[in-house]
Amino acid sequence: MMRPSNEAELAEFVASADGPLRIEGGGTRDIGRPVAGTKLSTANLSGISLYEPGALTVVAAAGTPLAEIEGKLAAEGQRLAFEPMDHRELLGTAGTSTIGGVVAANVSGPRRIQVGACRDSLLGVRFVDGMGRVLKNGGRVMKNVTGYDLVKLMAGSWGTLGVLTEVSLKVQAIPEAVGCVLVNGLSDVDAVAAMSAALGSPYDVTGAAHAPSGVDGHPVTMIRIEGLEASVAYRAAKITELLEKLGGEVLVERDPTKVGAGWAWVRDVALMQGQAGDVWRVSVKPSDGPEFVAKLRAKHADVSVLYDWGGGLVWIQVAEGTDVRAELFAGHATLIRGSELTRSTIPVFQPEPAPLAALSTGLRAKFDPRGILNAGLMG
Amino acid sequence: MDMPIPNPEVLANKARIVARLKEVLPPDAVISDEVEVRAYECDALTAYRCPPLAAVLPASTEEVAAILKVCHAENVPVVPRGAGTSLAGGSMPTADSVILGVARMTEVLETDYENRFIRVQTGRTNLSVSGAVEEEGFFYAPDPSSQLACAIAGNIAMNSGGAHCLKYGVTTNNLMGVTMVTMNGEVVEIGGAYLDAGGLDLLGVICGSEGQLGVVTEATLRILHKPEGARPVLMGFDSNEVAGQCVSDIIKSGIIPVAIEFMDRPCIRATEAFAGAGYPDCEALLIVEVEGSDAEIDAQLERILAIARTHNPVELRESTSADESARIWLGRKSAFGAMGQINDYMCLDGTIPVSQLPYVLRRIGELSTDYGLDVGNVFHAGDGNMHPLILFDANKPGDLEKCEAFGADILRLCVEVGGCLTGEHGVGIEKRDLMVDQYLPEDLDIQMAVKDVFDPKWLLNPAKVFPLAASDVRRMAAE
């Protein structure tokens, strides 16, 4: 394994590579079609080079541990708005999650529905392309339309377009209060209706999730509100009023520890941790989610389900080797947890229609003409 | 402004090209008369003009595809045009180009409140997207100043922002999917009513690509419920530094105002004389707006005013009525008009790190003295997106050139302090030649490589974004 200690070394290594490379941050997200090649780790490119709390910006080397960044931000009462999940328990991996890995996988948690994904907080990148050229795009300011936005393209490109060496991110102040409106006993269809009602209200919901089988085995729907103390109390009451009309038992949880634990449970998909079976992440129009899940349940036994993003993200656990796309009539699905064999036989990422696949292939050929960076990982 | 030499073959084949376009479009959708095409000779950057070969006004994605097939086969450059409000010359024609205007494509195709999106044809204006969902209490968040006139097509091309993007983000953060026609006439669907991409984030690179990768004909946009209410507060300070520090402290406090607008003394004086909004005569003025219920607004403003008081403001004005709110916004909203009353002006939009605000304003003041041209600053302070307005006299020989040189110096200053050339207007032709100040040759090269993939013949929106010298080899190879 190669662990270059600076960007120049990394660039030189890529330039002189004579075979495929397997790019890795902290190694916590073993996702994608298995890739052959020499392992290239960015873990030694580490450190926060700039943090301006008053400008809400942080710049860090790609290998900087996520925990280090979150710790530094927390000391100033700030955080990464997009709430990246920790994949370790779900995937059974060890290691230290790095900020470069988070960006490369565009990891975005429950707050995505309000503040956007990791790609929406990403202000700039530096990366090494497949020829070993050091390139940059974007910068460290919040508004930037200077040239093409390759920042978004790099987020979620899983190391297939370049090896990230530095990222700049917009950060967010941690609100003083948080609350969670809980509804017990809703069907999937009613839960999506409830989440849509809350998200379609003026009350600035920052999380909307539904577990058909929650911690106690019963259905629970969760609506999160964050902000000033008085605001959270007011909005929780308004949302309660709204959801009581739709039926079900409505409660408000205001203990920040309990609310935090509840949303960490959603974020890290605790429901499916340490269990057998493949795990899929499915993007749908929220109102399509329950029908997709019903079709899946009709066909397969032992389907576990967790709805996040107001129903727009459906986590599915099914028997190994099941391709859930057979029941998916609109949207796209990504296989997040599966054996190497499964990941070699079922496409991990949603196969693209031919014209889009041609564009993606064309871009990869420009960024990595030799096809050596995480080749084939995305299909 | 240097533009590429028009392709003589295209000019010579005008009659055939127009005839082929008429075969695929209704008769009134093809404009080729030399006088009539003059309506498309420029956009809102009026200093530069060039009548196109022809203009076409398709009404559907299918018609756009048919047009592009003809132009692709005939090697005709195509300049996509939304409403023509670009301040950067983003839809400035070349003599051998066909203007593809989406003005007839204004339909709402689908409105879905449960899943919170709207799908529209991209000729629809920004404001009328909000208008279409207003009755249900919803709105489309990005709000460029030109929102009454500007089209969604142009918003996507330039990744437009607005005064309220501090809270809601810019176009790219609110765009979920597009129907796009590539230069060879192929229709592609990218994204949709989903919150993430299934593969590479192609949507992310299309938004802000200035119409150079494809013609976006339909868009799926995120809509939000309107807040219960909004209220501004006005603060006056006796120095730019103090106002800048106040902005920083508000942002750090954890309250996210929907807007923080900043005006400096020259701008305050001009707007006061023009609009009489009753602004205090001070060095720097902030307008901070927050949203929520009445009680929530009270609570947020209480915090914000407490922060402001620690900076010894010369004026703090809270609004107690809709009328007072309107008055607080009046000066800001008439700032451009006020400056225009004094003289011709050029509006820049570089972005800087918020912490560099006092330094940059001081340097702009020094440059203003050096060049002998007045400048007023009004901008979105929360995100560092500046709008220096340089005053000049278009009738005075040499003044425009001097103004452009001054503008270029300001933009280089923005880059030097860690910012960028343009925060929301786009590069267009206006800042094309300054790209080398922000990007190294290889950084531009990889962007141009993206264009190679989408538009191998380099026919879409020619001569924008990249310095001609940088794109020369590629354009020649494509021909």
UniProtKB/TrEMBL annotation, chain A:
Pfam families: FAD_binding_4. Keywords: FAD, Flavoprotein. Gene3D superfamilies: 3.30.465.10. Residues 1-174 form the FAD-binding PCMH-type domain. It comes from the Bacteria. PANTHER family: D-LACTATE DEHYDROGENASE (PTHR11748), GLYCOLATE OXIDASE SUBUNIT GLCE (PTHR11748:SF103). This is Glycolate oxidase FAD binding subunit. It comes from Shimia sagamensis. The lineage of its organism: Bacteria, Pseudomonadati, Pseudomonadota, Alphaproteobacteria, Rhodobacterales.
TrEMBL record, chain B:
This is Glycolate oxidase. InterPro entries: FAD-bd_oxidored_4_C, FAD-bd_PCMH, FAD-bd_PCMH-like_sf, FAD-bd_PCMH_sub2, FAD-linked_Oxase-like_C, FAD-linked_OxidoTrans_Type4, Oxid_FAD_bind_N, Vanillyl_alc_oxidase_C-sub2. Its cofactor is FAD. Keywords: FAD, Flavoprotein, Oxidoreductase. Residues 48-226 form the FAD-binding PCMH-type domain. Coiled coil: none annotated. It holds the Pfam family FAD-oxidase_C. PANTHER family: GLYCOLATE OXIDASE SUBUNIT GLCD.
